């Protein structure tokens, strides 16, 4: 069986999630090639060696530049901090490697565009890790929309709110600085809901009207000196949306949404029905159909099961529940099928560029106080 | 005991709700005066007589103009269609009567202003029936906000979505025409959430950015001819909000939100906690406090009980549940206490004018594509 | 219009609920007779007079024995403590009055039987206030069962748990003593779920296997002396059930179910569907139908609306929510229609006797450790 | 690093779940030894070879008897149908292998006892796959109980209901026959809730009173002949429980609970609080504490997060959600730590025997109509 050697850069929360998924995916799915946890890069040799042992990689290096050029590596998997995505991806592309990168693709649309053009010029394949779209319930939502079951879409409401920066005593970190994060909540979690808005509706967001706010403008310096430094990007953002198919909608995103831990949620309203989803209950979808006797109409709670996308590969019985890491396992399946097969990769760099364009448009709209085209 | 003779105009859904509440309120509460169902007006004498019997009014008339001048009547209670509010209220005010009117106060802010000025000139007392703010759970939400329990407010999200016009075969009616309704969903149900946004946060909405859409632009004529006529106002609307205290937020409203029956809901986020409420589960409030051990933090479901505003007058035991009409009973208590006592009436005509100003601002913003001050 | 003069005995929580409902019912419903709040009895003249003013009764007396014989009174409405039901009802029956009594009918089945026989001998009409069965959602559940929509019934699960005695520092009171309460949680709240089990399923409970427990066997004396006294009845109880139609099931009841405020709930499973209800969300019913595509099956949340039993009399629009007192308003409608019309009264004394028989059977089964027939 | 060679027998739904977990566990956790997917047995060589490829095992055999004796195999992992557990486990034990078996351990308590005694005699280690107890939320529930946070336990309510046999057209299969399944729903899914009742409460079930029912007594023969055959065990069962610590409770289990897909749920009530859990929402726990101001008490929804047992190994951020297979990953961690370390394995064969004893006691109680000791 063909193998696909993976070179992983970065072993934080996301790097570990990738490693788990790489190990499990070939058993969950019948893959056309075997992904191999081959080479791992971290900031120094020692950490790299330890992480390789922990995460089950064959080889380790303290130099990511060596990794991207390593002849054995087929796919460079970038889980390093966001501000490094561009340099790493460009180096990998230059070395002719396929690239699998975490989201957001880049800090700005300009950077993302450069990455897209490089990848397309070199003919390498790319995939960006917007993993929530793989969830069985969200794939089901898309299927329901596409089938016309809820009629023509008339409204999209989305949010991705978390509260990881609610505490004002939490010091400045890479999230809060322009140079390392680009946009704030809008880029970090908002990117998910912007991508998902297009994925779910099958329509493009054509124009946005945005509003951003830095709720806690100064935070303690991370050096423990007791001094304060400036937060350079948004803590919360919201936008009205126009889609190219006529649909309207709105999104909301925050990193100071006190109480929300995994606050990705959407409501899609059509002329004949509606869908409600909340990632905090990721294995269920609420579906309403405007049909049948009036006294029997209500939102049904559908638990994901073998009839729904990709679920049967995880369990033969309904309602057994998928978890966060299962989304990544599906993503690995898509990666492998996209690279060794003919299946288009979604979202590739070009698609991920759209997310950066939308983020930029929301920021520009906020500055200008006017609708801005994407 | 002092009595307060009520003259009710209009006996549809809302008129009946008023009548039920007038009958029950004196038993639920210890009122400073006894409201009396005295005179009822309908479109003709016969209907008026029948409705007076059904709703328990002592006298009936087919002429509302007689009602507003009737010397026995202390308070004119206007439950007629919205487009009649102005003429009726002005006539009642001219006759020196206190006025209790259903929402929205008027079709436009200009009309509302005329009504406010007339009432203030004549020194009559006024109350407008934004009944959802009386609900025990919503009063509790306000109490929690005011007490500082959830810290400084940073985000308000509200919606009032229903689906009473989802069916495209539903003919044109008074809701859909400018002359009889003014704004569409925005005026009819959106007015509730706009008023509530200010009531709950204790802040004024200073600027709005709005977007409106008529989803079903043409509907069957009500004459059954099979012809189609134009819908003249919005089926759905949304707006970003700036409050004068620095808070930001957004609202959404619709009459074609397929599946939503009583879709009034809000999320209020503060620096130390958050509140979530949904009118479809009107007797519970979700409360999150960012305190205590991390592993024990979550939204608590508070069932309304005797510790919460006005509940104890309905039941001595927690969780017994209030209903829609109970909100009106509380409103009647406020009416009576405001008219015979010193308590300020909220929302009076001047406060209700704000709702019209906000509606106008949203419409203007939509037309201009820019933030508009209220 | 015919009038029906009500003589109310007892003005605690339940007495007030009756008064509210008596005032509102004629406006909510088109009744065949007008119930009149005529005479009110309390423990002394002064309290009676004050309560009559507060609750809107025309006359007052400190002597309930005068009330039951008063020639103007048509219906004696007993809201006094449970241990007084028997004496009062027998006196009222002897005076030829119809009797409307709160539940449980009596402290023992023997007492209840005496009351039934007296009422039937004298030919007076009777109604017992098991109000939760009037709730629109529960009436809908019954309608669904009767229509066969969920097939043949195979399982009934019910509970009525509250936590009003959770605090061990709460002193002994009438609930805890055999002479004043009979059974404990089983009689006080369990009586509701036992009655409802038969109401909903349309089957009779033929045999029970019960288990009772006094969780807090000694509580402070109510005299504040600091001494402890014995709790004489159950704090929690549970039973397995056999119905005469072949159905099996179980019930649970408690007054120390920490956290549960209005914990009346049931799940009815049939061969083709199922129903779930929770009184804490009294205006919604969950319905599952085992039909249609497998991937679209789930429990639907039905909000009560005008298509459902009795709702339209309260509101013309769906999802507006009924409250606890609305159940009592429906009960008053049934009382009036039963007394002046031909409609059978349910549950009358004979039906309420069944509840006492079931309670006795559960207690006997507990003592004997064996199935006991009802 | 030490390795632990796994010999897997059976590759249905559960066999695949084991394989996925074996692959992922070493990356999720820092294990003291590396479990190796070494040898796989299926009913014939060809299927075994194909399944070994699919599930990632190094070697394959069509003869499970060869597997249990294979010198390279350290642990025999039994995922074959229940009626084969005994023979396979005894053979594995005789060969000196550690045994990891799916639940229920055996068809009868007598068989289970034979297995326990063999394992203890040979000194091999054992583990039985009651995977739901590994779920982070359920481990948290146990932690809360043990810490005394909800006081002394006073009631346990559990159920495990599913509807996989609801359709009467579903033919007889191994589940329905005594010789292949032993008990019906009670053994298949009821075994989970019986084990969990003891795991969660820390008390032993000392006596049960049970009731069983075969709802669909005859089903189509699996040969397609159109003939009907007898269902030999229970479709649904329920029992009242007495625990050795004084706690009482009840359980319910079904395979014909129309509408329930993963209906494992429990409510644990203590003197100071309560816990509610539903496996259909497996990543959340409802917690009530009877403390603080009365108006702020309610059930809190705790989303599992890094503060809760085992969660941090899967994700660094709260609310990301675990899935069914993650439970098995935790089970593998426990298996490896139990076999190569000092940690006691729970539930081992002796503990699993208790489940068989409880099942037997429920069946006996049903037959005798009396309480039966476990």
TrEMBL record, chains A, B, C, D:
Q: Where is the Gfo/Idh/MocA-like oxidoreductase N-terminal domain?
A: 4-130
What domain of life? Bacteria
Q: Which residues cross the membrane?
A: none
Q: What Gene3D superfamilies does this protein's entry cite?
A: Dihydrodipicolinate Reductase, domain 2, NAD(P)-binding Rossmann-like Domain
Q: Which Pfam families match?
A: GFO_IDH_MocA (PF01408), GFO_IDH_MocA_C3 (PF22725)
Q: Which UniProt keywords apply?
A: Oxidoreductase
| Ranges of residues in domain GFO/IDH/MocA-like oxidoreductase | 139-275
Record-linked InterPro entries: Gfo/Idh/MocA-like_OxRdtase_N, Gfo/Idh/MocA_oxidrdct_glycsds, GFO_IDH_MocA-like_dom, NAD(P)-bd_dom_sf
Fetch the SUPFAM superfamilies from UniProt.
Glyceraldehyde-3-phosphate dehydrogenase-like, C-terminal domain, NAD(P)-binding Rossmann-fold domains
PANTHER family from the xrefs?
A: BCDNA.GH03377
**Mind telling me what this protein is named?**
Gfo/Idh/MocA family oxidoreductase
Q: Which organism is it from?
A: Billgrantia campisalis
| Lineage, top ranks | Bacteria, Pseudomonadati, Pseudomonadota, Gammaproteobacteria, Oceanospirillales
